[in-house]
Amino acid sequence: MTTTARRSVLLRLITAFVVGFVSLTLEIAYTRVISFKLFYYYTYFVIGLALLGLGAASAFVSISSRLRKADTVHLVQRVAPIAALAGVVGYAIVARLAVDVNLIWVGTRWEALFQLFLLFVLSVSITAVFFAVGLVFASLVVNQAAHMRRLYFWDLLGAATGCLLAVPLESTIGPPTMILASLVLLAL
Q1: DSSP strand E in the chain: where?
Q2: For a pLDDT cut of 90, what percent of the chain falls above it?
Q3: What string of H, E and C letters represents the secondary structure of 60-114?
Q4: Which pTM value belongs to this model?
Q5: How far, in Å, CA of 1 to CA of 7, rounded?
Q6: pLDDT tens across 40-57, in order?
Q7: Backbone angles phi, psi at 90, to 5 degrees
């Protein structure tokens, strides 16, 4: 393997690590934010939205021949900053949106429909960042199938690191700053 090929594989492994780290820290921070903003049992809702975004991105990559043929490094250079921007906009929407989920159950029909609409907007804004992160990882997997074991290892190592650091980060910098710091790391 040439030096350029080794450097290319190393760059992809580091990308897999960052994707694992960012996706887990975002998921954990959003569960905290949503449990405070809506109600504690909506934490499972965040996990479902994260899985929806990651899975939808994988399906999108599998049906798009253009994405499957794209150079991974160039795709990451294009998608990662867009994903970070989508994450910042999504967090701003989540932070500013005044959702009262109790009105879905006890409010009038129009109040319930309006709150459902707000919940849908909140859901799309959270799912969007996970969709973008999923695009990066799915393109890595498709384009680097020969290195799948190593990619998966580095992704799991990033996720494990994110899990280990999530509680100390939440207790020191707080979930909103943790979300923004993860998005900055993704953009870089």
Answers
A1: none
A2: 22
A3: HHHHCHHHHHCCHHHHHHHHHHHHHHHHHHHHHHHHHCCCCCHHHHHCCHHHHHH
A4: 0.85
A5: 10
A6: 777 788 889 999 999 999
A7: -60, -40
CA 72, CA 122: separation in Å to the nearest integer? 30
Over residues 104-109, the mean pLDDT reads: 84
Helix, strand or coil, per DSSP, at residue 1: coil
Give the chain's length.
188
Q: Which single residue is written with the structure tokens 């820290």?
A: 25
Neighbours of 42 (CB within 10 A): 19
Contact 72, 139 (CB under 8 A): yes
Give the contacts of 123 (CB within 8 A, at least 6 positions apart): 45, 49
Burial 23-32 (b: 16+ CB within 10 A, else e): bbbbbbbbbb
